[in-house]
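seq:
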Amino acid sequence: MSRVRNEARPGPSARLPLFATILWALVAPSGGRADSLTNQPFPGITWWTEVRTNPPMRWFVAEADLSNPHLRIRVAPGGADPDGPGPWQTTLMRPTQIAAREGFDLVVNGDFFDGRGIKDAEGTNASYRAEIWGAVCGPAATDGRAWSTCTNERPCLVVHADRRVSIEMRDRPATDDWELVAGNTMLVSNGSLVAHTSKTRHPRTAAGLDAQARTLVILVADGRKPGVAVGMSYEELAQEMVRLGCWQAFNLDGGGSSVMAVRDPANHKFRVLNDPTDGHERAVANVLGLTSTTAVGVEPH
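struct:
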């Protein structure tokens, strides 16, 4: 294990294959980053964790190299549509279960959603169980099939039919939108922070693109854990996305839904990286998944 002094995020030369790790020990001022742990389990996909103090914060970052021709970004709903043409689109399912079904290598939670008969709560009081009928709040598309629309435009990560990736405002998938997942608010626009009045800290999930749309950045922040992770405000989240090189970024569902999980290429089992506030991953309505078709020791999906 090497120990180095580094004030920026780990560069490509510091990222080792599979689950080899590097601990970045820093002497950081109050409020600065305390350490970072980095992994590259699959070609084109890198993740690492960062920890800060005063206030205590912890988050996980995944980067996807969009120039890698073997990398796939997909949006997947939970279970089957329970009521056909009715208002419910899917049944809730835990992200790692969706990821295993779809052959993902890394997965995070997706859009905000409603669950039939559910009141928002966390921990042992949480009612987000698998098989509850669910509906996402924004537009959604999977493999070219539009399966959700909404009445107001929301920021969306869009994978176009020609594999271009963008962040755009949508109230419904466009004709060439192959994959689409929505959030609730922009964080970064044209490299600048988007102003927000709310300063409340929560667990968060965010997605962003660099100026050339060559790198997808996903950040999942733990929160509501006194002494460990207080969560992040929109402003704090936006600042980190800019630091990570994002030209555009937006906020996905958060709170108890925030999760990042990665598949171990050795045993194919999923490992939840962060610490969800329910004490386990929450069943959700849809997810955002990454797949590398050239992973070492993994058959192409």
